[in-house]
Amino acid sequence: MPLSSHLTPGIAIHALASRLRQLPPSCGPVRLIGVDGHAGSGKSTFAGQLATALGGAPVLHLDDIATHEELFAWTERLLREVIEPLTRGETAHYRPYDWRARHFGPTHALPPAPVVLVEGVGAGRRALRPHLARLLWMELPHEEAWTRGRTRDGEEQHAFWAGWVEAEHRHFAEDPSRPFADLLVRQGSEGYEVLPGPVGTTGPDQDLTHSDGPSAVC
User: Fold this and answer.
1) Is the dihedral of CA 129, 142, 77, 70 positive or negative?
2) Is 89 left (phi over 0), alpha (psi -120 to 50) or beta?
3) Hey, which residues does 187 pair with through a beta bridge?
4) Sign of the CA dihedral running 88, 46, 159, 157
5) How many whole angstroms separate alpha carbon 218 and alpha carbon 155?
6) What is the model's pTM?
7) Binning pLDDT at 50, 70 and 90, where does residue 156 land?
8) pLDDT score recorded for residue 148
9) Which of 131, 181, 186, 218 maximizes the CB count within 10 A of its CB?
């Protein structure tokens, strides 16, 4: 899946959007695209821009699915409330979690659009991969991503981040995503670069390193 590697604003994203539209459906009539990466790696921003390039594709944020009590133990709920209805070609309904109020909010509808993006830490977990048309990984070392996230959220979220880092480490150690990514996305000063991921570059005779850090940088 060769794409333009130029960092000209919008070029790589629009080329990617064009290719994604041409994929066969993976979840009922839906081409479900996963955008994974470490917390703070820019998944939400990238997914928003990709959704725009796709003509307003729906985006499911896994922050709406996770809770304080279930940072990563939300698989069954996501499959039941979202994946199964989409597989049947039906509109999915879920209740986004309110992180400040600590309870679920009003029901939100997710239609079975031609392309649906699911973004968040764990979007490429093994239970979801069979339903994905493509898995994208935001290529940013975890320490750099976490530093960005802490800066973004401020001192009031310091305690939460301490617990999150431990939970994310544990999740990716048990259920890595990056080794199964079709494409890697790198953010530059003027746009994004989209590169082949481990799935596209690892042959049958090559070893696959189960790590969620970009090579040895992490």
Assistant:
1) positive
2) left
3) 192
4) negative
5) 25
6) 0.85
7) low
8) 64
9) 181
| Structure tokens belonging to residue 86 | 């989409």
SS (H, E, C) the chain: CCCCCCCCCCHHHHHHHHHHHCCCCCECCEEEEEEECCCCCCHHHHHHHHHHHCCCCCEEEHHHCCCCCCCCCCHHHHHHHHHHHHHCCCCEEECCEECCCCEECCCEEECCCCEEEEECCCCCCCCCHHHCCEEEEECCCHHHHHHHHHHHHCHHHHHHHHHHHHHHHHHHHHCCCHHHCCEEEEECCCCEEEEECHHHHCCCCCCCCCCCCCCCCC
Residue with tokens 């992490």: 218
Domain spans in the chain, listed from the N-terminal domain onward: 11-201
Strands 103-104 and 97-98: antiparallel
CA 217, chain centre distance (Å) = 21
List the beta bridge partners of residue 92. Answer: 110
- Of the chain, the percentage scoring pLDDT greater than 70 comes to 79
Structure tokens at 141: 């070392």
Please write the tens of the pLDDT for every residue from 28-49. Answer: 999 999 999 998 899 999 999 9
| Distance (Å) of CA 38 to CA 11, 57, 99, 190, 199 | 24, 23, 19, 21, 19
Residue 90 in tokens: 């039906």
Give the chain's largest Cα–Cα span: 51
Query: Is CATH 3.40.50.300 correct for 11-201?
Result: yes
